[in-house]
Each structure stands twice: as C-alpha cells, then as structure tokens.
Amino acid sequence: MSGFSLRYHNLLNVAKALINPATEEKQDDAITALGLVATSANQDLLLAELQLKADLTETQPVSAATLPLPTGAATSANQTTLITQSPVDDVSGARTVITYQHHKIHEGDTYIINEAYDLAINNVIDIRITTPNTTKWAHWVLEFDTESEYEFWFYEVAVITVAGSAYTPINLNRNSVNTSVLAVDIITNASLALANADTDVTGATTLMHGFAGAGKTTGGSQSIREEFILKQNTIYGFRAVANAAGWIHENMAWYEHESLA
So where are the chain's domains? Predict the structure, then answer.
C-alpha cells in the first residue's frame, strides 16, 4: 500500500503574505478583551440590561404581522360574508335597511294599546301606565281621534286611588312570547270629579293638554310625533273628557329598550 501525507497550507493574500497569523501578541490581546468582559462591573452592567428586558420596562420590537387576530375580527373574509348576508332589493339591487323602531318590532319589544270607547257627555276615561323600577325604558307615542269634542291631558306622577280594569298590551310581533314591562289599567267615570277621586292628579306634572274637535260639529285627531321616554318607577295617566257625546279611538304604541346610560 502506498503511503500518504497531509499538507497544511496557511491562508495567504495575493502577495503571498500570511493573513492574520495567530501570534502570541494577538492572543494576548484577545485574552485582555475577555478579561474586560469578565470583570464584576461589566457583568453587573450586562445583568442590569438583561433585567430591564425581562421586566418589559424597555420598548420591545414586535411585528404586528405576527399577532393573532381576535375571534370575529374585521378580516376581508368576514366582511365578504357580511356583504353577502346583507338583504338586497329584488328590483333595484340596492341594500335594504330598516329603522331601529322597526327592528324593535322584529325583536318582539314593541307593544300597543288600541281601543275605542263610546262616552256620554262629561264622561271621563283614564288610561294609567305604571313603569317598573328598572332601566328597561318605554319609548312611548300616542295618537287618537274623536267623533265629537274632547279635552285631554297626559300626566306624569299621578296617584291611583281606585284600581281600574287591567289591560294587557298587544305585542306587534305575534311570534314573540315577550310581554311588556308596563302595567296598564283603564277606568271610566261619569264625571271629572269622580275621575279625580279615582286618579289623583293634584301633584302631577302635565306633559300634554289640549282639545280634539274643539268648536266643530265633527270630531278631530291628535298625535305625538316624537316619543316620550317614560321615567322608571312612575305612574302616568292619559285622560280624556267627552265635552259632547261620542266615541274616542286611542292608539298608544311603544318599544322597550334596556338603557345604557
């Protein structure tokens, strides 16, 4: 078997000179540099720097691209799904929306009192509404029409001294099992004096007062265009007096909403 030999070649530059030879002098320089790092003072500085980073008291570089998104984040995919699910008008292709009041009907939180009463002259009808002591508030509107002349009031903080006939408000969403938080009762009397004995309005605040069909041979109508937000834990009363014999048709409507205030 023929022999073999190993040859070692130093790293030379183009001038054939040895590049950075590991001289004893350079080794001494390296040892000196390591000694500087190994001093107690320098180690304390290094430890202090590491402690700052461990305590997160320094701003740390973070890439937003690496952060996880929360569930339901507004990603492109979720926005596409939302657009796809948005209802569209079949004729124009326009996106369709509904008002908040209409939405509350769909939610099963909208109610009405819709009744007609035929009263003799000077007869009085009181519709009394008691709100609960909760933050589920009623947003209430009223309209009514009459056959003859009527005078009407809407009172806040009335006092019920004689109970009337309980009335169950009608839920406009007939698929809903929700019931109104308002307690409603209705009472009629032959005169204003008797009505005041049943429903004391002496200390009440008058929110509305007026006439329907005043000075006419035929009736009239009244309505509230803007809603009242009824105060919680309060008794309200709508009162109408027949100044001439005839019917009155009343339509009260409201939706109920949990206040965020």
Answer: 116-258
Among residues 231, 114, 110, 234, the alpha carbon closest in space to that of 179 is found at: 110
261 pLDDT higher than 90:
no
Scored b (16 or more CB within 10 A) or e, 201-229 reads beebeeeeeebbbeeeeebbebebeeebe
Q: Which spans in the chain are helix H?
A: 24-37, 40-54, 76-85, 100-106, 192-198
10 Å CB burial of residue 232 (0-12, 13-18, 19+) is middle
Give pTM, 2 decimals.
0.66
DSSP character at residue 76: H
Whose CA is closest to 136, among 178, 167, 199, 185?
178
Residues whose CB falls within 8 Å of the CB of residue 54, separated by 6 or more in sequence, listed in order: none
State whether residue 12 is helix, strand or coil.
Answer: strand
Report yes or no: 237 and 129 within 8 Å, Cβ to Cβ. Answer: yes
256/135 Cα distance (integer angstroms): 10
Give residue-wise pLDDT tens across range 72-86: 677 766 666 666 666
**Which position has the token pair 């001494």?**
28
Residues 127, 120, 248, CA angle at the centre, nearest 5°? 45
CA distances from 58 to 44, 45, 51, 173, 247 (A): 18, 15, 10, 58, 79
What is the structure's pLDDT at 97?
A: 84
Asked if residue 105 has pLDDT above 70, the reply is yes
Residue 114 has pLDDT above 80, yes or no: yes
Nearest CA-CA partner of 153 in 216, 199, 89: 199
